[in-house]
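C-ALPHA CELLS:
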Amino acid sequence: MKKIMLATLVLGGLAAMTSCKKDWVCSCDGAFGGVSYTGADTTFTDMKKDEAETKCNSYDYSFGTDNYQDCELQ
C-alpha cells in the first residue's frame, strides 16, 4: 500500500511540474523586402509550454521569397 501511495505521489508531482506556467521566449528570424533579420524576440509571460508554442508558431508567415518569418520557442 505504501508503494502505491509513493508511486501516486511521484507521478502526481511530475504531472504538476509539466503543466506549470512560466515565461517563454519566442525568437524569430526572417526577411522583409529582401532584408534579413535575426533575433526578433518576444516574451510570453505566465504561459504553459503548449500555449506559448501555439502563439509563437502563429507568428510564422511567408509571402514569396523576400518576405518570411520563422519563429521558434526557446
Observations:
- The chain has two helices and four strands.
- The beta strands are 22-32, 35-47, 61-63, 67-73.
- The chain has a mean pLDDT of 85.
- The two ends are 42 Å apart (CA to CA).
